[in-house]
Specification:
Radius of gyration: 25 Å
Oligomer: single chain
Largest sheet: 8 strands, mixed
Structural class: alpha+beta
Helix content: 40-55%
Number of domains: 3
């Protein structure tokens, strides 16, 4: 039966067949459906969209739509994270192999430069960035990790941004959600007008700048005094794919962050809860979300108070009970209450 269902219904939970959609929709509306209704669509059981009713095995109950969405989003997020790790591995391997060949013939005059060039020092990085800016004619894509963008950080590349705007080059920037709270970023976007489109995520990959989908710049060390200039078409195309997938998951800066659906818990606290559930320490969580460790711990304290947790161990249990151990939702839902809280409408 399972094999037959797989052949007849080659799809995932994000795009059901017509028969599966009808049965699952009916199960969501009614709370359960007779098992015989699902026999023509075994895909619903294979995808865990329906499961047996423990009180009556002749009926099937639906998996909550919110849980299905969380499962799908986690898969997409894991895919993007894996892509980021693969980029790092490819670059590291290329550098190692390139270092073995000290007698590689230098490119002759008139031939395009090497696929990967190490830029040592801020002056060389700035010069290479200026050169790429002058050659850019269509599009710039950037990922800017960290928290609130300081005025001096924004002003460092302002001359390049203004030059690009003057030539009609479109720009798309990805930031963390924390960057929304910086007035410097808001002033910068107001200055650039509709030339720049910005979106935000809970966390992003390390800094990335792509010019015309032909040249990319990424950091080569922790303090960013070294960078890699990448011109290999395969590598650049790969980084563009990573950016586009992040962009699709991100929220426009002009749109509000989605409600968590749980009373008293903010979107940031939901993100912190998910990372706590994965076992990360405070410093790691703070770095990934672009906030200070002190701010992170303040959010954890409020999270513990809201969920009624007296210890870190108990907090982990309460996070799982409240369904906060997955990625934040991208759309609002029915208001839920944390364990131990009474719904205001129930009074």
């Amino acid at each position: 039966m399972a094999g037959h269902g797989t052949e007849e219904h080659p799809h995932g939970a994000d795009r059901l067949c017509e028969a599966g959609d009808r049965v699952y929709s009916r199960a969501v509306r009614r709370g359960r459906v007779p098992r015989r209704d699902a026999e023509p669509v075994p895909c619903l059981l294979e995808l865990a969209l329906l499961h047996p009713d423990p009180d009556d095995m002749d009926f099937l109950v639906p998996t909550a739509p919110q849980e299905v969405m969380t499962r799908l989003l986690r898969g997409m997020y894991d895919e993007v994270s894996a892509s980021h790790r693969r980029v790092g591995s490819v670059v590291a391997a290329f550098e190692r192999y390139a270092g073995l060949g000290r007698r590689v013939r230098e490119p002759s005059a008139g031939v395009e430069g090497t696929a990967i060039r190490v830029l040592d020092g801020l002056s060389r990085i700035q010069a290479a960035m200026d050169e790429a800016t002058q050659a850019c004619t269509t599009e710039v894509l950037t990922v800017q990790p960290g928290g609130i963008r300081r005025e001096h950080e924004l002003s460092e590349g302002l001359h390049r941004a203004l030059a690009l705007r003057g030539r009609g080059v479109r720009m798309r920037d990805l930031y963390t959600h924390v960057a929304r709270h910086g007035q410097g970023l808001l002033n910068y976007l107001e200055l650039m007008g509709d030339t720049v489109e910005a979106r935000t995520l809970d966390e992003v990959i390390d800094r990335l700048i792509l010019f015309d989908r032909t040249v990319a710049f990424v950091p080569a060390n922790a303090d960013r005094t070294m960078a890699l200039e990448l011109r290999h078409p395969g590598l650049v195309e790969y980084l563009v794919t990573v950016f586009e997938r992040l962009w699709r998951l991100a929220i426009p800066l002009t749109a509000p962050l989605p409600d968590t659906g749980i009373e008293g818990i903010s979107h940031r606290e939901q993100s912190i809860a998910a990372l706590l559930a994965e076992g990360h320490q405070d410093a790691v969580i703070a770095e990934r979300l672009g906030i200070s460790v002190r701010t992170c711990r303040a959010h954890i304290a409020r999270l513990s108070e809201t969920l009624g947790a007296a210890s870190r161990t108990q907090l982990g249990v309460r996070i799982a009970q409240a369904g906060l151990d997955g990625p934040p939702r991208t759309s609002g839902g029915a208001s839920l209450t944390a364990p131990g809280q009474e719904s205001p409408t129930a009074r």
